[in-house]
Amino acid sequence: MIDRIPSGFHPFVLPFMIGMVFVLLYCAYGIVKIMIQLTAEDRKKFLISLVTPKTLLKNIKDIFCDCLLHVKLWKRNKMLGFMHSSIAFGWFMLIVLGHIEVILFIPERLHTFYYPIFFNYFVAENDATVAGSLLFFLMDFFLLLVLTGIALAIVKRIRSRIFGMRRTTRHSLINHIGMYALWAIFPLRLLAEGFTAHISGGSFLTIPLNWVFRQFLGNDLNMLPTWWAYSIALGVFMVVLPFSRFMHIPAEMMLIPMRNAGLKIRGARKGFARVQVYSCPNCGVCIDACPMSVSKANIKDCTVYLTRQIRRGNEKRIAEISDKCLLCGKCEALCQVGVEGPQLRVMQRSLRKYALEPDYSNIAVEPLVEAASGSKVLYFSGCMSQLTPEIGRSVESVLRKAGVDFTWMDRDGGLCCGRPMATAGRLDAARAIVEKNEKIILGSGADTLLVSCPICYKMFRESYDLPGVRVVHYSQYFSGLVKLGQLKLEKSDICYVYHDPCELGRGCGIYEEPRRLIGLSAAIAEADKTREESVCCGGSLGSLSLSFEQRRKITQGALDNLYTSHADAIATACPLCKATFARYSDRPVRDLAEIIDAQSTGYKQTER
Amino acid sequence: MMDFGFSLSKSSTLNLDTADLSLYKKLCELSPDARTCMACGSCSATCTAGPFSGMSVRKVILDLQRGRDVKAMVQGCMLCGKCIMVCPRGINTRNLILNLCKIYDR
Amino acid sequence: MKENIVIIGGGIAGMEAAKQLLCLGYNPIIVEQNDHLGGHVSQWHQLFPDMTPAQDLVRRLGEEISEANIFLETTVSYVNKLKDGYNVMLNNGVNIVCRALLIASGFKLFDATKKEEYGYGVYDRVITNSDLEAWFNGKQDPRIPDKPARVGFVHCVGSRDLKAGNSQCSKVCCVTAIKQAIEVKEKFPDAEIYCFYMDLRLFGKKYEDFYINAQRDFGVHFIRGRVSEVGEAIDGRLQVKAEDTLAGKPLKVTLDMLVLMSGMVCNPQATEIARMIHLDMDDDGFLRSRDNVYSIIESNRPGVFYAGACTGTKTVPETVAEARAAALGIDAYLKSL
Fold first, then answer.
1. In this complex, do A389 and C162 lie within 8 Å of one another by their Cβ atoms?
2. Pairing state of beta strands C76-82 and C85-90?
3. Which residue of A88, A154, A538, C148 has the smallest Cβ count within 10 Å?
4. Measured between CA atoms, how close is B81 to chain A, in angstroms?
């Protein structure tokens, strides 16, 4: 393998070089800007994580698995997984092998950026080595892999349903330019290498192609234009990259280490939030995932469009999209990159200025502390449960049966947990409510806070500082009582389908306990979409602007999903889900606590 | 009018001729459903903040319709959303309160 | 050979229409899903405003239609349109061809368990208007205490309520609540009665007199506020939360019994039939009349007529009047063919 062009340069590499330098400068600028935007504490945390071997290894592993191999996507959708990993991993390998070729054969050219990319133009084959032919074979193999991926991508654009996607994103012009440039790169590379294969050598793809070309093209006049075209396609792709969805490629490599460092979204548009926004690949998985997409009018309010509008700075649309969302978290759960759509929205809401701020200074906590004192177990049912009195009654009854001494903190009304205020983006007001409740709970002397509403439970878990108090959802607590033998469950022959409330399932990761308890008290069936894919009931307080009629459609969509199980009744573990479903459901809706209460006996009864 | 050196205490009559309804009108632009309130009182009865601050969405809407101030009530709201659940007219009460906080100008 | 006319529903609308059609020389065939005629009225005790025993009305109508064909415990399995009429298939295998069809399927009471906050089916002392009427008629009901000191009536349960899917007014509940309040007071003279209302709609003849009676002679308390929540005290009594909107204050009261005035919703059977022969449905869930002024008894399909509460909430006198109108309408229609 020898250098064919003495200068080692040809002007056709310029488009690529311009694009490459531009992208690198842009990314460097972006990294610096984001690092400046991080809070000092977050910056320190992030930098330390980069030199900590454990997180460093995890970063490398995650980037390799998520960005290149798309392992998560494989698990979800084999076709999409293959498409993405063939393009990403294939391209990565082409670059790596390109460098290996340069290192092996012409190490003196390694300092040029373009040599590994355009290797086949600059070299001539002199004697075939085993290593050379193996490398050539691999180059052709990975090129074929990428081409297969591109072919699939084209098919997906035309008929997304083949890939199991009902709806895909409507892309902007710049995204289209980037996409067509990306699609063009690899066929052009194949052509270019095909035209040069009799000089530079090749393998199973390029040599036959070269032979075919030479059958009817007697000269090498086509060689340069195709290398030009290949370089231009690369250049165009790189130049539009920062302004298109393909920015997710470098952004995700920043997102993964930041997430592994334990960073949280703190600002609306800056720092980690910015990285999240740029990491959105605009794939549109969130569109089918979003429970609001039952109405066509809401499709443009999915996370993919939020990130787009944030990048464009369209404040009106940002506010609309942010306010409408139910914050059910399904888009985040299904997002391959892990863009935190709900949290991004809450932060957009937090930007809003209000002329009137809440004031809770007149609320005296002392009487509430007194009402909450007396037992080690403090039960908090939450505001909403007062509209679904069966839940509190059942929890109370089960606790009595199991002989648990408890106090019902908000039996006659209490304060809100603060989560509805927090999701509205009014974080200071929420903090004020949280502090009042903290005083009540800590003042009560309880060591266990038992919660039946998942909305409150998530808030108590994440936003409260309650040293010495175990915060527990009743599904966990009752599971414990069953294990200890304080509660005995007897099976009925009713078949329930369990609806995972957003805040309990995706919000707190509790999927198993409710199912186990239902399984012990009745038959259980699963709906089509379940667990992290469960569909929000439509009653969520997360949405600020959805109208009653729009919510009705969402509820109907969620019910239709539950009906796929053909169960006799619906079980859930959230007062809001229960009240919402009960409005339209054609079959009974029961809270988990009611089912347990109906099927349980306490140890006292069993002794008798 | 003869000046007796003192005046009668301020009239407690709601005078719709002089009442300032600008805030209500502005609110109705942002939350048109405010107009559909039939003053059933469900929201007030169920209100989490009500027992502490006298908050009542019904009263807020009515007072705005009569040009009266509502600041203290609205400041007590915790946005818990129970009122949305019970409103028989399907008014998005939470959004109404948020909009009111946004445009409040007294 | 007399001409067959199928009447779907054997409540007072269907019975009255059958009676008139018999007089007009037709052969009415009543299809009734229950084992008795009279529908909801047959379960009622007394009818406002004259306190007429409901059984008397049903009995009288029953005697007057003894010549009609009546299928009890029968439902319509299928209806299809023929060239000049309808073929009605019943679940007992009978097939009837008729040129005119009268839908008098009436209403269904709103399922009060759907409003869990009111505690029907949750607490032991919450009943509905129809439970109370059954008790007046002598049916035992353990939920009704022997000597209630305080009884509440909640108006508009499942009516005028978008959340319950019914934004319309059920029209008869206000006066029914007052009637039942008076009856309860007569049974328990020492009891205090509270009626929780949003608006009192006492539009009919003598209704206002009823209201005055309830206030003056029976001391019924009227509280303007919709009940939002019902809780249970340790002794099993009920704690009702509402806002006294006239006083502008939240209100709490402990009651021994609570009666929910369940509103009217369209009978699902009517919806089913409407689907089979493409009858228009109104957005309130009832069947849509040709118009609501002049042609209430007419549908959008030739030969299909309506009577009573299948087109909306109706009082007994309105239902009876509509049934007569429908019989005349059918007669006129058949003669015009």
1. no
2. antiparallel
3. A154
4. 7
Measured between beta carbons, the chain C residues lying within 8 angstroms of B92 are none
Residues A504 and A476 in one domain: no
> A512 lies in a domain?
yes
Distance from CA of A267 to the nearest CA of C (A): 37
Q: Which among B74, B85, B94 has the least Cβ separation from residue A387?
A: B85
Residue A204 lies inside a defined structural domain of this protein:
yes
Nearest residue on chain A to B93, alpha-carbon basis? A544
- Round to whole Å and give the CA distance between C193 and C189: 10
pLDDT in tens, A16-65: 999 999 999 999 999 999 999 999 999 999 999 999 999 999 999 999 99
* Domain presence at residue A1: no
Helix (H) or strand (E) holding A524: strand A523-525
Select from C239, C262, C285 the last residue of a domain. Answer: C262
Together in a domain, A464 and A539: no
Number of domains in chain A: 3
Residue ending a domain, choose from C216, C237, C262: C262
Same domain for C160 and C67, yes or no, is: no
The rounded distance, in Å, linking the Cα atoms of C162 and C164 is: 5
Global pTM?
0.91
In which domain, by residue range, is C249 found? 112-262
CATH number reported for the structural domain that contains residue C247 in this entry: 3.50.50.60
A576 is in which domain, residue-wise?
Answer: 488-602
Does residue C180 share a domain with residue C84?
no
pLDDT digits (tens, 9 = 90+) for A452-481: 999 999 999 999 999 999 999 999 999 999
Give the one of C117, C123, C162 whose C-beta lies nearest to A387's C-beta: C117
The alpha carbon of residue A43 is apart from the nearest alpha carbon of chain C, in Å, by 49
One domain, residues A17 and A155 = yes
Is there a cis peptide before residue A575, judged by omega within 30 degrees of 0?
A: no
For residue A313, what is the DSSP state?
T
Query: Residue A466 corresponds to which amino acid?
Result: L
CB contact under 8 A, B101 and A355: yes
What domain count does chain C have?
Answer: 2
| DSSP label of C289 | P
Residues C38 and C100 in one domain: yes
Q: Are B76 and A579 inside 8 Å of each other by CB? A: no
Distance in angstroms (rounded) separating the CA atoms of residues C18 and C14:
6
Tell me the chain B residues in contact with residue A426 when contact means C-beta distances shorter than 8 Å: 79
CB contacts of C165 in chain A (<8 Å) are 583-584
User: From CA C241, how far away is CA B42, in angstroms rounded?
Assistant: 9
CB contact under 8 A, C162 and A579: no
Out of A357, A433, A579, the one facing B78 most closely (by C-beta) is A433
B17 three-class SS: coil
Domain ranges within chain B, ordered by starting residue: 22-103
Among B74, B92, B94, select the one facing A356 at the smallest CB separation: B74
Query: In angstroms, rounded to a whole number, what is the distance separating the alpha carbons of residues A119 and A298?
Result: 49
| CATH classification of the domain holding A385 | 3.40.50.1860
Do residues A494 and A448 share a domain? Answer: no
Please tell me whether residues A222 and A202 are part of one structural domain.
yes
**Per-position pLDDT tens, chain C of length 337:** 799 999 999 999 999 999 999 999 999 999 999 999 999 999 999 999 999 999 999 999 999 999 999 999 999 999 999 998 999 999 999 999 999 999 999 999 999 999 999 999 999 999 999 999 999 999 999 999 999 999 999 999 999 999 998 999 999 999 999 999 999 999 999 999 999 999 999 999 999 999 999 999 999 999 999 999 999 988 889 999 999 999 999 999 999 999 999 999 999 999 999 999 999 999 999 999 999 999 999 999 999 999 999 999 999 999 999 999 999 999 999 999 8
Q: What is the CATH number of the domain that holds A558?
A: 3.40.50
**Is A57 in the same domain as A197?**
yes
Question: Inter-chain contact A420–B81, Cβ cutoff 8 Å?
Answer: yes
Instruction: Show which subunits contact B, needing at least 3 CB pairs below 8 angstroms.
Output: A, C
- Residue A282's nearest CA partner among A310, A263, A256, A258 is A310
Are residues C134 and C224 located together in one domain of the fold?
Answer: yes
**Beta carbons of B46 and C241 less than 8 Å apart:** yes
CA-nearest of A147, A141, A136, A179 to A82 is A147
Report the chain C residue with the minimal C-alpha distance to residue A578.
Answer: C116
Contact list in B for residue C243 (CB cut-off 8 A) is: 41-42, 44-45, 56, 58
Q: What is the C-alpha to C-alpha distance for residues C284 and B26, in angstroms, rounded to an integer?
A: 32
